[in-house]
Each structure stands twice: as C-alpha cells, then as structure tokens.
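Same chain as my last thread, 142 residues:
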Amino acid sequence: MNAVYTAVATSLGDGRNGTARTSDGRLEVTLATPTEMGGSGEGTNPEQLFALGYAACFHSAMKGVGGQLGIPVIDSAVTAEVGIGALDDGPGYGLVITLHVELGGGISQADADRLVEAAHRVCPYSNATRGNVEVTLEVETA
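reply #2:
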C-alpha cells in the first residue's frame, strides 16, 4: 500500500495520563485514565479518540459508498462505542466496538443494511479491526 497521507501524533507523560498532540498543532489534548479504570477522568482517553476517529471515518465511507450504490445518505449519524477490558484468554487488554448508524430520508431497512455492510468493507478502521476486534453494526432508519 502506498500511503497518500500520514497523520503524526505524539504522546507525552505516562501514556494514559499526560498530553498528546498532532505534529501540525491542530489537536492537543490532556489525557487521563477514566474513573471506571481507577483514574481521575479529568481528560480524554485513547478509547474516546479511537471512537471519534472510527465514527468519522465510517461516516465518510458510508457517504462514499452511498454515492456508488445510488443510495442517498441523508440525515445520517454514526456513533462509535469503544469498550476496553481484560482479555478472557490471556494477559493484556482488548477492545469491543459497536457502531450505531442512523439514516434518515426514508431509506428502506434493506438498503440501509446493504449500505452499512458495504461501508464496513471499505472503511480503513473496519479493515484495521477486522479479525482482531469484535465490531457490532446497528442500523436504524427513520
């Protein structure tokens, strides 16, 4: 693969508690372990950042695929839920993800399902997680 764009970000401090920033200076965040994991919760965390990226990327993939399939993507939203927990079968931690897709414009459930499955095949985040992370797709039409 030939990358057409490379994002660069640096984490400072002790990873979950510190700061992180992009090389272009457009994004700088304070990091803090969530209270559910014993931290202060007074900053963002890697799971929130991953959820933001996945939601935006999947939404973009859905819009692109919709154009190719002739399925209009109107009044749409993608919400990504990224959970973290200890692995059942060994040391370390893993992720579990649910993508909740909302589609308006009177799209049929069949077209909505076809659109979301197609987006899941082309989205870079979906391709990166496939086979490694459980991803559940939920589709709601209005």
